[in-house]
Structure formats: C-alpha cells, structure tokens
Amino acid sequence: MTEFVIEPGRQDIVMIRHFDAPPDLVFRVVTDPELIPRWWGPGFLTTRVDRMEVAPGGRWRFVNVDARGREWGFSGFYHAVVPPERFVRTWEFEGTPEEVALETVTLTQVDGRTRYTARSVHPTVEARDAIIRADGPRGGRESMDRLAALLR
C-alpha cells in the first residue's frame, strides 16, 4: 500500500511504500532506463525513456504516450546519487516548465524490506496543489503498484 502525506498549506508531497526487496535491488530497478517503462506512470500510458544519466549533473527525460499518440514529457537533472540509499533530482512536467520540484528518493532497509520515501518540494503551495488536483497521487500509487509487481 502506498501512503501519501499531503498537509494543507505546505509545498511538499511525501509518498511512502514498502517493498519486499532489498534496497540495492530497488535502487537498481528505479535507476535502470531499460526497466523504467515497465513501472513508471499509469498503466494506461506507455513510457519512453529519452534520456537517463543517473549521476550528479546528469539529465533525465521520460515521455508518457497515450493510445492516441499524445505525449507528456517529464524531465530534470540529478543532483545527488548515493547507491543504494538515495537520489535527488529536479522534476518538471514540461507542460508547466516554471514549476520545477525537487525530489529526494530515500531507500531504507526496515525488517528485511525496503522503505521507499519520495519527497517532492514544489515552488509554491499552489503548484503542489495543482499536482493533487491533476490526480498525481493516483499516478504515483499506480507506479508504485507496478514497481512492486516488477520487484516480485
């Protein structure tokens, strides 16, 4: 089950999920461009990885494509990469390029499982709330469900 912490008046969204896999495996799967299309985004969209340089200063860009061929791009830069513990990157929906979020993903071993915590900090409360209104948590939940299935 994926948990979200979304407090009124704050600029952040925290997403937490526990996986029955060790942190090194989870880290490897979430940073492998060949595996991203198998879990990232809602299942009714396909994902294309245009770029994924998992290193400080590296760029990333994923594109969701619907059945009609419409595309939505997401991109950013990696700021820190500490395998298998965490990575920090900017995260931008290309439809709103002025609203860049900073995302920190932390993987912690807890009782033989991995606690995956993604905290995204948005430039304003309004920008954060727009993600909520666009049903971002649904997409995050579905991505985490797909990731859990892949890790199995």
Automatic annotation (TrEMBL):
Leader sequence range is: none
Task: Name all Activator of Hsp90 ATPase homologue 1/2-like C-terminal domain ranges.
Answer: 20-151
Q: One Pfam family of this protein, by short name?
A: AHSA1
Q: Please, which domain of life does this record's source organism belong to?
A: Bacteria
Q: Which CDD domains match?
A: SRPBCC_CalC_Aha1-like_9 (cd07826)
The text of the family note is:
Belongs to the AHA1 family.
Entry protein name? Uncharacterized protein YndB with AHSA1/START domain
Taxonomy-wise, where does this protein's organism fall, top ranks first? Bacteria, Bacillati, Actinomycetota, Actinomycetes, Streptosporangiales
